[in-house]
């Protein structure tokens, strides 16, 4: 499978200028190609192919208005055309129902907060002996290597985010040698807000609430930004401070997701989660907390890490009544309001923790053999069934407790 490894890069002054030039040229080529296709469509002409667009880019370099396109690597311009093809392909697939609905490609602005350029092997980029990233017509850029690449990368994408940071993103191919040894435990996961994740073995993982904890600092930075005059240099500096504050929060949340997902995948052979409607929950009064939790990103990490390390991943339907079914006897006891965190099964008398019971039912709905003992807070005493009744020597009826499964 293909994976993406990102590393922080630190270009110097001339290299930042060269990267800015590459970002601008890639944007102009993308917008020119999009305009050519839109004009052809409005005139009733056939769809402009990528080969024709590539010829137009080559011809534009010979003109006085677009002569500066030759100052950057030709691969950067060709990859910009490929990005446009990908945008059109995704749009057409969404119309056919092959992927979620999305809009048509739009023009890029030089005021966008995120800029990218991509280099393939044809551009002859390389990693030098000193550990620098050598890019054509840019130079040797210093890279902060946090880990080694598992294989030789095929492409590298240089990204500048809203906070003004530069990253080098490598695409590498991983093999089956990363499969982890088989283990016995399996786990079901119930995602929440008070506790980020509740596992079927009874483990509850508190929600870090990164956005809530950083709200005071974000509020101060946003207030300073609103007081700066539009178009001034101080407003640009204030905007970068706001972007950096949000980037720190996002980085902390992503690191938490990576550590937790890796731990769960390493310790369990099979993982089951519920397919939540995050878009629907984000339209409620809990929207900020839902976005702060980042459930979709966490589940996505679990899915690709399970495929990478040879684990089994299950995603059950969102309409499974995991909070209504007793995990001990399987009787559906009906819906319960959110303030009910513990409930007693009317059939078997087991007192259940709502979240742990849901996690066990998630695992069972995925076909995993998970014991229901983790869902029990304390066993309740119920009279024995008629066929099992008996008497002691003192004549008292037998009262049987629910055994641990």
Question: Mind explaining what this structure looks like?
Answer:
With 405 residues, the chain is of the alpha+beta class. The protein is 38% helix and 19% strand. The chain contains 10 helices and 17 strands. The strands form 4 sheets. The chain has a 7-stranded antiparallel β-sheet with strand order 2-6-7-1-5-4-3. The protein has a 5-stranded mixed β-sheet with strand order 10-9-8-11-12, sandwiched between helices. Strands 13-14-15 form a 3-stranded antiparallel β-sheet. Strand 3 and strand 4 form a beta hairpin. Helix 1 crosses helix 3, helix 5 packs antiparallel against helix 6 and helix 6 packs across helix 9. The longest helix has 35 residues.
Mean pLDDT: 87
Which of globular, elongated, flat, extended, rod-shaped describes the shape? Answer: elongated
Which strands sit side by side, in order, in the main sheet? 2-6-7-1-5-4-3
The beta-strand count equals 17
Rg from Cα: 28 Å
In terms of topology, how is this protein built?
Blueprint: E1 2-10, H1 13-42, H2 50-60, H3 74-95, E2 115-119, E3 126-127, E4 133-135, E5 139-144, E6 155-160, E7 166-173, E8 186-191, E9 195-199, E10 204-206, H4 210-213, H5 215-226, H6 233-267, E11 270-274, H7 278-281, H8 287-293, H9 295-309, E12 312-316, E13 342-344, E14 351-353, H10 354-365, E15 376-378, E16 381-383, E17 399-401
Parallel strand pairs: 8-11, 11-12
Antiparallel strand pairs: 1-5, 1-7, 2-6, 3-4, 4-5, 6-7, 8-9, 9-10, 13-14, 14-15, 16-17
């Amino acid at each position: 499978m293909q994976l993406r490894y990102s590393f922080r890069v630190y270009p110097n002054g001339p290299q930042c200028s060269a990267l800015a030039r590459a970002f601008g040229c890639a944007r102009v080529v993308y917008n020119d190609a999009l305009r050519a296709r839109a004009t052809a469509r409005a005139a009733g002409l056939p769809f402009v192919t990528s080969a024709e667009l590539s010829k137009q880019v080559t011809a534009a370099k010979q003109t006085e208005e677009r002569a500066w396109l030759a100052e950057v690597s030709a691969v950067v311009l060709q990859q910009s055309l490929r990005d446009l093809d990908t945008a059109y392909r995704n749009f057409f697939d969404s119309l056919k129902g092959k992927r979620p609905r999305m809009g048509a490609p739009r023009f890029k602005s030089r005021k966008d907060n995120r800029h990218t350029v991509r280099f393939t092997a044809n551009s002859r980029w390389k990693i030098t002996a000193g550990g620098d990233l050598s890019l054509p017509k840019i130079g040797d850029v210093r890279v902060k290597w946090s880990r080694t690449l598992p294989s030789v990368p095929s492409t590298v994408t240089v990204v500048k985010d809203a906070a003004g940071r530069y990253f080098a993103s490598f695409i590498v191919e991983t093999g089956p040698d990363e499969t982890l040894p088989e283990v016995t435990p399996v786990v079901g996961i119930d995602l929440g807000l008070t506790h980020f994740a509740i596992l079927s073995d009874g483990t509850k993982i508190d929600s870090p609430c990164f956005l809530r904890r950083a709200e005071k600092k974000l509020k101060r930075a946003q207030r300073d930004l609103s007081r700066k005059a539009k178009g001034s240099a101080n407003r640009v500096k204030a905007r970068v401070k706001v972007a950096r504050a949000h980037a720190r929060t996002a980085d902390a949340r992503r690191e938490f997701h990576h550590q937790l997902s890796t731990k769960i995948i390493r310790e369990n052979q099979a993982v089951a989660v519920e397919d939540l409607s995050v878009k629907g929950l984000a339209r409620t009064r809990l929207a900020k907390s839902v976005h702060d939790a980042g459930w979709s990103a966490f589940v996505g990490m679990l899915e690709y890490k399970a495929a990478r390390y040879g684990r089994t991943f299950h995603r059950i339907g969102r309409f499974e009544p995991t909070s209504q079914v007793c995990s001990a006897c399987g009787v559906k006891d009906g819906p319960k309001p959110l303030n009910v965190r513990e409930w007693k099964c009317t059939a078997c008398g087991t007192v259940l923790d709502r979240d742990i019971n849901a996690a066990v039912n998630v695992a069972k709905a995925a076909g995993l053999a998970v014991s229901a003992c983790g869902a029990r807070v304390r066993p309740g005493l119920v009279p024995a069934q008629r066929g099992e009744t008996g008497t002691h020597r003192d004549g008292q009826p037998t009262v049987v407790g629910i055994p641990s499964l």
